[in-house]
Amino acid sequence: MPERRYKGYRVYVYIALARLFASLDLDLSAPELMTQVPDALAHPTGRVSKEEILHAIRSNSHMTEKVLAHLIAEGFATMEKDELGYDIRITFAGVDHLRRFRQFYRELYARELSEHYRYTGSPRWLG
Predict the structure, then answer these.
(1) Is the model's pLDDT at 34 over the cut of 70?
(2) Which of 42, 26, 39 is nearest to 99 (CA)?
(3) Structure confidence by residue, pLDDT tens digits, 66-100
(4) Rounded mean pLDDT of 31-45?
(5) CA distances from 71 to 37, 91, 95, 115, 123 (A)
(6) What is the topology classification, in CATH, of domain 9-118?
(7) Dist. CA 71–CA 17, nearest whole Å
(8) Three-state SS at 33
(9) pLDDT confidence band for 3 (50 / 70 / 90)
(10) Cα-atom radius of gyration of the chain, to the nearest Å?
């Protein structure tokens, strides 16, 4: 039986951040992106739950908690509990970080991302 290699949580942080950005329905490569972000953050069109993050990273709840804790500690995301569950949103700092380092992460984690989406193909929102 082949050994299952463990992916470091940082690749999951990138995947989660990309999923949160996708909820803004903006183009990450648009030159005027950072001028559009404040309005998109002020008028959200959807929400991302813990379950959606868990599904996006395709890992267990412990890893989901670790990823979310990192995103919140870095100021890249916020999480609020309401009557529907947990509402997780990307912040302006999170968008800026993703915009600046997306290509770096895609190159650094190319092997892990390829393995992660081997059977399903990477989602459109991953970019």
Answers:
(1) yes
(2) 26
(3) 999 999 999 999 999 989 889 999 999 999 999 99
(4) 93
(5) 18, 10, 12, 23, 21
(6) Arc Repressor Mutant, subunit A (1.10.10)
(7) 8
(8) helix
(9) low
(10) 14
Question: Contact at 8 Å (CB) between 92 and 26?
Answer: no
Q: Where are the domains of the chain?
A: 9-118
**Cβ(12)–Cβ(63) below 8 Å:** yes
Please identify which residue in the block is written with the tokens 């600046």. 100
| End-to-end Cα distance, the chain | 33
Amino acid letter for position 26: L
Among 61, 59, 72, 57, CA closest to 19: 57
Alpha carbons 67 and 21: distance in angstroms, whole number: 15
Nearest to 77 by CA among 86, 85, 105: 86
Alpha carbon distance 79, 56 (integer Å): 17
- The SS3 of residue 88 is strand
Contacts of residue 98, defined as CB under 8 A and 6 or more positions apart, other chains included, come to 17, 18, 21, 28, 90
